[in-house]
């Protein structure tokens, strides 16, 4: 992409979106690899869902960070779960491995949005490796039904102009593996 600044100066921001087929190499533990590969990314699927049962704490240097406690929401024998309006933590099936010259971001699938729910996530930094989690927010006052392994979010990989100077090394490195 090339972006132009308002002063007519061209900013050489070179990034490329990786096709879904090519991005498959950066993930493992698929529910259905062929269905999950999209034109511009890879769909992430629901492994588990948890509800929040406490508050969390965020500070500047993470010395006092406390993530909110959760409890599992059980899928029924038919592998469906009904979620009332509210916030939930979703763990995905897929293990993501972001190369040092890439970053990734995710957006909710349009079908999820059309059911009155959305997913929120942070950036997947270069060097991140783990089974990610995201915030599922059910806005629909009538709730939503989700089946185990449902495709909820599309992960998009972008090649950076230059490789990162260091790999992600935060608290969530290697999570849920």
UniProtKB/TrEMBL annotation:
Keywords: Hydrolase, Nucleotide metabolism. CDD domains: trimeric_dUTPase. Coiled coil: none annotated. Gene3D superfamilies: 2.70.40.10. GO terms for molecular function: dCTP deaminase activity. One of its GO terms (biological process) is dUTP biosynthetic process. PANTHER family: DCTP DEAMINASE, DEOXYURIDINE 5'-TRIPHOSPHATE NUCLEOTIDOHYDROLASE. This is DeoxyUTP pyrophosphatase. It comes from Methanothrix thermoacetophila (strain DSM 6194 / JCM 14653 / NBRC 101360 / PT). The lineage of its organism: Archaea, Methanobacteriati, Methanobacteriota, Stenosarchaea group, Methanomicrobia.
